[in-house]
Amino acid sequence: MTPPATRRGFSAEAVAELVRRRDEPDWMRQRRLDAWQTYERLPMPTRQDEEWRRTDLRDLKLDEVAPFADGHNGRTPRGTLLPEAERHEQLGGFLGLRDGHPVEHRLDDALRAKGVIFTDLATAVREHGDLVREHFMTRVVPAGDSKFAALHGAFWDNGTFLYVPKGVAVELPFRAVVAAGHQGSASMAHTLIVLDEQAQATFAEDFTSPEGTAGGFSSRVTEIILGQEANLRYVGVQRWGKTVHDFHTERALLGRDATVVLETVELGSALSKGRVEAVFAGDGGNAKILGLYIEDGRQHLDRYTLQDHRAANCTSDLLFKGVLTDKARSVFSGLIRVAPNARKTAAYQQNRNLLLSRAARADSIPNLEIGCNDILGCTHGATVGKVDEEQLFYLMCRGLTRSDATHLIVEGFVDPLVAAVPIAGLRDALRSEIQRRVSAQDIQ
Question: Can you spell out the DSSP letters for 1-56?
């Protein structure tokens, strides 16, 4: 296959070129073209839109972005992307992607024999087309969901596909690392997770790129479909370089009596605008939604969360925590929505922020939309503040400097969320990275 020439900007010609170069079935080619038409029809968000009122897109120059990779001059990239700290871990499968190209792939033979599918999405489109066609950007995150979802539907480059058949409980975690060069180029990773009835799995993925001077662009989507009584633990870690504009949606659709733990960790990018959502399509579902963000410099993070109770007897619990210093800013807007038929709903939402400098800022906007009068309870809360002076005094009386005491308090603040990460090597690496980030700050 001839390597694609570098082009700049997203356009109908770029979509047509991508379609020509991809070895995809007709239905996927048509979906790309339809998604582009949706993208052209939808207006670009502005600060006049409520959801975007606190996020400025003036620095986003889409016409300067290369919409897809150059193909590595026809060579398949080599080398493992699995972090060294995790190479001793027992995994059910591992997938490494660099600029949309598979670098490494393995799946436990016993799981393969049980019908588990774990591969890159481009391969899944070719080899498991019926499964992908049913679920890819249909019910969970359709192209019409947003301007950036439509752009993603047209230009997605690759991603991860995980399917666990009915009744199969996978004890070993699945792991993926999506790496991008992001030197003026786009990354369009798509994660599609489908767990059939009574299936169980754990999956963690990283999105990573080096620091650079040229701006990068990311529009990524994670779709999670859980059948009746399915159980999933998912962790997504974003470590893009700090010149990247990152737009993303993680959404889980829960069937009857399904359970999900959905955790996102945000460490990188210049600007990150995303949605994290759990939608209850069947009675008796349970969702725990966790989020952690660490920001410094002039990083800007804007997060919208949704606990969408459409069915009865469902429970959701959301906790997002942020640590901000320098001139970083976060925006958290969370909604608990209860439909008229969602009886016996129990939902909780909390956002807590620590500010380590006078110039850092955190906006927290929790919301309730209750359409049913037969609920167990819906509550929300938010805090924004500096490190507690009484806690500092207590630690300093025991010999710690003010800086060391502050670092210890911050580590204690974030550690419950880090401890929820189900893979030991990843958990330890996150602790070390957060400690380095906090220790490097001149805390005021």
Answer: -PPPPP--S--HHHHHHHHHHS---HHHHHHHHHHHHHHHHSPPP-TTSGGGTT--
